[in-house]
Design brief:
- This protein is α/β, with parallel strands linked by helices and 353 residues long.
- It folds into 2 domains: 177 residues, Nucleotidyltransferase, domain 5; 141 residues, ATPase, nucleotide binding domain (Nucleotidyltransferase, domain 5).
- Helix content is 39%, strand content 23%.
- Strands 1, 2, 3, 4, 5, 8 and 14 form a 7-stranded mixed sheet that branches.
- A hairpin with a 4-residue loop joins strand 6 and strand 7.
- It is globular, with a radius of gyration of 20 Å.
- The two termini are 34 Å apart.
Amino acid sequence: MFLMTKIILGIMSGSSLDGLDIGAFKFNFSKNVWAFEIIAFKTFAIHEKLKSQLIIADKLEKTELNELDILYGKFISECIIEFTNEHNLNPELIGVHGHTVFHEPKKGFSLQLGNGKVIAEKTKITTVSDFRNEDIQKGGQGAPLVPIGDNLLFKDYDACINLGGIANVTLKESKVAFDIYYCNRALNYLANKLGFEYDKNGSLSRKGKNNKELLIELNRIKYLKLKGPKSLNNQDFEKFLIPIFNQFKNDKTENLLRTYIEFLADLIAFSATNCKNILVTGGGAHNSFFMEILRKKTNSTTKVPEPIITDSKEALIFAFMAFLKKEGKTNIISYYTGAYSDSSAGKVDFPKG
């Protein structure tokens, strides 16, 4: 059997709010193997007024939250239209992961802003959004969502690690996936204190020294003791991690950065103990100092792919998930999330007319 899709857009809006990723992809299935082609990719800056609203979204009343959902949907739509015009594209489908405000699987819900109905109407393209809640209703974490793509599109790796706002891992042999801990969300928070948007190439953390007391406190975090499947929300970053950093505010911020990289690299290396080859993607993979530390701690071949794959992988997988939803096929694997059954998840919105 041979199958080739038309162009599908994948949209990713991460918790670190460092940009809106839009990619155009094609997928093909031949000899029982899936493959992909990246047609175009671009990261759009989120303008400061909208960004400031998204940062405080969890503090808003319901009406204000609904208004922001529509506003962000309009912004995503404008970026999509600009992107498709720039590259002369005519996509058949959009898969969009909006900005996560709440992620509470124990309470039975997850909320991402970026209204799919608005996007479908503005772009005139069928849109799939809200990938998490069906899995949560089945008792799952609704996260991580990437294992379907890790298994079918990146078959050659024992483990796939994404270093985004949150670091997450898919372990193929043990059939386990989970959020490891906050990554760019924490590193950017500390870099901001030094007047930088992020720690480019790890140049700030490279100057630092390990703070052993901070490392001890970080390793006491209760989330680390939980067994998977498990996932993180944005609120716990402010509730649990920032207070730990504040305990050491008299130390140099470079030292806090250096120590946090050491801490996170330890967690990743422990997670992938029995893996021979690891794929690392996401913004954190561009931090050369982080990657140096991580490679020293693992006994594996750790590969960072070409930049366009490193940056677009999550958008790629949401495009793939949208296609699988359209075809009525599984796009969330239950043994990774803890749900009682697999799902073909996502809310489908069609353009009017």
